[in-house]
């Protein structure tokens, strides 16, 4: 059965980020201190995903998933990063429902974000447990949920060590063969030894996919989040609170392929508003990604 074979997909894009270090607006000052200046970087963003499902008895199955993604900058290489995630799970699919549970391990490498630090170094390791479920109510409506908990340890910054909890829910609606919608909400909590870096994050998001005439397709996604920190930041008499907005629009042609790779033109925008002046910024990017499912 095809679903019991290896499922391989990947993507590659050229990126240019004019504010790779998330600097606030130019000339931002707080109590006489001047914020850091924005830095630009250009390079490649990549991802590759491998997955395989092995059937067992009575509609049970086991599954392995491996994913590697990251950014390799050609200029300002100190901001390069990569992440590899490996997960194993046992599940059961019965009619319209699918549920699986299993452990996961994630390793991150980061060049360090400092000058003269170009090579990737071990940054953090995450070990956790993930529960995923989905259910088709009918041919048009589907619900998906994910619950993930684990512990993250940092190689050089032990004050960041702590647990994380993620709960994500998404509803999909297939209104026609050419159009689908999704709406979802997420809750994420990170604890840390130093509660200055511990926070709660609530997010709401929505997406719209459309196949247009003449072979053109688009996908638009928007999100709004509120991030509340548990500790007090330097120069701030109250706990930090962020309001984060993001939008992304991808455009591609369904008949345009190069050796099986499909190019997509993507516009993205991110805005962070905070009660801490040093943590407010805006950034927008335009990039072309080529992707393929093998």
Describe this structure as you would to a colleague:
The protein has 294 residues and is an all-beta fold. The chain contains no helices and 16 strands. The protein has strands at residues 6-17, 29-30, 33-34, 41-55, 60-73, 81-94, 97-110, 121-136, 141-154, 162-176, 179-190, 199-211, 216-229, 241-253, 262-274, 281-293. β15 and β16 form a beta hairpin. It is globular and about 65 Å long.
Brief summary of the model shown:
The chain has no helices and 16 strands.
Topology:
Elements: E1 6-17, E2 29-30, E3 33-34, E4 41-55, E5 60-73, E6 81-94, E7 97-110, E8 121-136, E9 141-154, E10 162-176, E11 179-190, E12 199-211, E13 216-229, E14 241-253, E15 262-274, E16 281-293
Mean pLDDT: 91
- Helix vs. strand class: mainly beta
Query: Helix count, per DSSP?
Result: 0
Tell me about the largest β-sheet: 14 strands, antiparallel, barrel
Strand order of the largest sheet: 1-4-5-6-7-8-9-10-11-12-13-14-15-16
User: Globular, elongated, flat, extended or rod-shaped: what is the shape?
Assistant: globular
The helix/strand order is EEEEEEEEEEEEEEEE
- The low-confidence parts are none
Give the terminus-to-terminus CA distance: 16 Å
Beta content: over 45%
Q: Please give the radius of gyration in angstroms.
A: 21 Å
Name the helicity range: under 10%
Number-wise, the strands total 16
């Amino acid at each position: 059965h095809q679903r019991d074979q290896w499922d391989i997909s990947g993507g590659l894009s050229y990126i240019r980020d004019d504010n790779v270090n998330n600097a606030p607006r130019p000339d931002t000052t707080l109590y006489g201190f001047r914020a850091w200046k924005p830095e630009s970087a250009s390079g490649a963003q990549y991802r590759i995903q491998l997955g395989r499902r092995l059937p067992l008895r009575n509609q049970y199955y086991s599954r392995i998933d491996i994913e590697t993604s990251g950014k390799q900058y050609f200029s300002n290489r100190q901001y390069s990063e990569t992440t590899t995630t490996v997960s194993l799970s046992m599940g059961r699919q019965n009619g319209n429902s699918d549920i699986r549970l299993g452990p996961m391990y994630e390793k991150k490498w980061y060049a360090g974000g400092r000058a003269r630090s170009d090579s990737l170094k071990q940054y953090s390791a995450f070990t956790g447990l993930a529960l995923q479920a989905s259910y088709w109510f009918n041919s048009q409506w589907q619900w998906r949920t994910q619950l993930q908990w684990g512990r993250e340890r940092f190689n050089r910054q032990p004050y960041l060590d702590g647990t994380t909890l993620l709960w994500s829910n998404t509803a999909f609606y297939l209104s026609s063969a050419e159009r689908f919608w999704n709406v979802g909400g997420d809750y994420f909590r990170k604890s840390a030894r130093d509660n200055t870096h511990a926070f709660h994050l609530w997010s709401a998001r929505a997406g719209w996919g459309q196949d247009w005439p003449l072979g053109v397709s688009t996908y638009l996604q928007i999100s709004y989040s509120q991030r509340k920190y548990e500790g007090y930041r330097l120069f701030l008499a109250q706990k930090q609170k962020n309001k984060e907005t993001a939008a992304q629009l991808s455009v591609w042609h369904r008949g345009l392929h190069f050796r099986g790779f499909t190019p997509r033109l993507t516009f993205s925008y991110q805005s962070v508003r905070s009660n801490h002046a040093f943590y407010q910024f805006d950034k927008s990017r335009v990039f072309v990604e080529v992707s393929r499912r093998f």
